[in-house]
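The data are passed on as follows:
___
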Amino acid sequence: MAKRVATVGAGVSGLASIKRCREEGLEPTCFERSDDLGGLWRFTEHVEEGRASLYKSVVSNSCKEMSCYPDFPFPENYPNYVPNSVFLEYLKMYANQFNLLKCIQFKVRKAQNIS
């Protein structure tokens, strides 16, 4: 039986953690407090309690080659400096490509009985 691992948050780091845990034969469960993945890269009109937010026009401050996952480059047609909505799209493509969504529990405020 694989060891179970808890990950908090389905942002850039959380998604990478889930993927790596699965590659190592672990059984990750990611607890995400919001209703979608993306973490800081997900713009919302209304700020959610306990969640940092960005403004609608945020663009990455590092080029796409430096901002991508090593095993999943940004599509060629993406701009060099990626707007937040495009970055979020990329994160969703990454999650789908590596079948990570099945490991994420959305709208979780606190983990219950993790053993």
About this structure: The radius of gyration is 15 Å. Strands lie at 4-8, 27-31, 104-105. The mean pLDDT is 91.
